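Hey all, quick one. A colleague (J.T.) asked me to put the adenosine-5'-diphosphate job into the tracker so the inputs and the structure tokens live in one place instead of scattered across chat threads. No bug as far as I know, just bookkeeping. Sequence used:
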Amino acid sequence: MSTKHDLELLSVTKRYGSTVAVDAINHKFQPATYTCLLGPSGCGKSSTLRMIAGHESVTEGSILLSGRDVSALPPANRGTAMMFQNYALFPHLSVRDNVAFSLKMKGVDTKERYATANEMLELVDLTDLADRLPEQLSGGQQQRVALARALITRPEVLLLDEPLSALDPFLRIRMRGELKKLQKELGISFIHVTHGQDEALALADEIVVMNDAVIEQAGAARDVFNAPKTRFVAQFMGGHNVIALPEGHFAIRTDAVAITAPTKGTMDAQVTAVEYQGTHVSLLSRIAGDQEVTALVPEAQYFTTPHHPGDQIGLHWDATNLHQLTA
Ligand code: ADP
Ligand code: MG
């Protein structure tokens, strides 16, 4: 039984000639959820999103929305809408006409499409700018027009490809708050592609980590961050050490590594570098096997017993904080 509005990828593959951009991925996106598709450049995120939207054909596999196979449907008949990275606004149309564009294509009469466009402009707080042209707007305002234009089709799933990348850092943080709020208000699914782990952590209920055309790990944001399953996920999410112990390879958060004087029961280490980071101090040390371990120590705690490069120290951690890696 499929729940209404859930989106499922069944062994979806995308090939461009001999390039395998997406390799037989399976995933069920939860309804009414903010999901981030996260991974480095070239790993297949945009190809996946474009196949869901219908802007790119599926080479193999199928895409189900609310239990219905939409793989062969044109974009406008899928129940999805896409917001593009460059916004793709029509320069010669007013903000209101840009937002109302897809309704015009559907033959909706002027009065009705303006009424709906006005509702959407209200939703993204652009009512006062409805008569302007795109070039008369800031980047953040253009982005909200693009958002309203995508939402006017009342999609079940909104697809966003790196929607914040063109904004300056300050605006990016403000806009991500607005996106998150909007998703909760609308109660639909957002699937947001990003290569930034901080952006994914800030926004996502669920994170799908892609690498090299496959899904490495998917789950609740906190689970993916706290318990990475592979070396790639641990390193890409950041904030983790990957260390080899006799039992295998493990990830441990840098803030879960504690420092003492070398004593029984601690792991011998020698400090190699100390970096002050404001709220924390990052202390790098070398353990057996020439492995480096980072410990992130709250700054007040660090300065009660500061350590310096060359000092012998003891490292310890709670065994429950060690996560065994499968690859
Ligand atoms: P991402 O969005 O994660 O950066 P893409 O899905 O854009 O990754 O690309 C995945 C792979 O597919 C890359 O190797 C890229 O070069 C290739 N690719 C993407 N689009 C095309 C295309 N239209 N034609 C040929 N190769 C493509
Ligand atoms: Mg991309």
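Adding what we noticed when we looked at it: The pocket of magnesium ion (ligand 2) is lined by residues 45-46 (CB under 6 Å). The first helix runs from residue 45 to 53.
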